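ok trying again, last paste got cut off:
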Amino acid sequence: MNDINPADLGKEMGTVSVSQITSIIKNTLESCFVNLTVTGEISGFKKATSGHIYFTLKDENACISCVLWRTKAFGLDFVPKNGDKVVVHGNVSVYEARGTYQIVCSSLKLCGIGDILAMLEKRKREYEKEGLFDENRKKAIPSRPKKIVIITSGTGAALHDIMNVLKRRNAGIDLLVLPAAVQGNNSSKEIVFRIQEANEFLLGDVIIVGRGGGSLEDLLSFSEDNVVRAISESEIPIISAVGHEIDWALSDYVADLRAPTPSAAAEMVCRESIEEKDKALKLTKAIISSINSKLMEEKLRFSNCNISFSHYIVDNRLSNARMRNESYIESWRTLVLRRFDLQKASFSRIKTELEALSPQKILDRGFSIVTDENKNVISNSKMLSKGAGFEIQFAKGRIKAVCKGVE
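nice, full thing came through this time. structure:
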């Protein structure tokens, strides 16, 4: 069946079976199309539960099915998706049961990835020479930040991961999400705007800038010059959390701290509170253990004493404990009252400053506010004309007037 020559099929050789013709096609294609290198765009991407990857490679005029077995897919350095322009290397294979052919890929790489890496390495060297990556420029991350600013996609998985971690580890922390595009032509401008906005209005104690994983091209926004310089100029400490652990962007080098993933960034900013909680638990266990040990020791001692003497010892110790307890309570009360006094003084000072800036206070000192008929404040005589009506507001009451002339 496999010995039929393709050239003989056009001659009168009788009827051939489907298996025979398919076998000839299989042998012909698989022997001719070996070690191919093909470029095209991924479409119909699908990753099976087995780990195998199936997709169609297409260009303007044609398409061909492709498969990348699990053992090869495991070593990919990027996450393929529909629309990616790639280079595949492999052999043509015919699946006889369906009469279809495909490329069995031995490798899968993004087109132009070498050029992108070369460009990023060049930028990295320039920034290093400029000193943007120097350690002495980096700011310390607060150990107990009260408010955290998150700059990422408002609908991405990165935001979901960060919020889950912070909610689990420190539910009392304040979060402010400044959504920005993290991929596309204008994404770097949005990221820069959000960084500058957070600094201008002092919106937080630390900023997390990042996104979930993706291809090298997907992460390019975080390597753009305007983003790198905005991070470098930020007065608020910034944590760069771009992609997965194997991913990287130039923002990682210029930021005050680099997190391997967005979730890791969330763990970093609330690490202190978790450590304090662990210390408190350990201290509690140690105190309970010490108390139990002391109780056992006293129990053994009391077992050798008469009842009256035991009562004396217990009463004496309880009395001492009460006095120590009262002393502790008084110390705490003094400390709490002192802190209340400090807070009260602080609030009083702020209140005084705010009252000094109050428009009413200014009016009380003899000043007045002049507005035109549209309630616009008159700060210049040229804003009025002869015959125009205006209003003068005093600390108490207001009058309406008409302009008789302008000097």
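cool. The radius of gyration is 38 Å. The chain has a mean pLDDT of 86.
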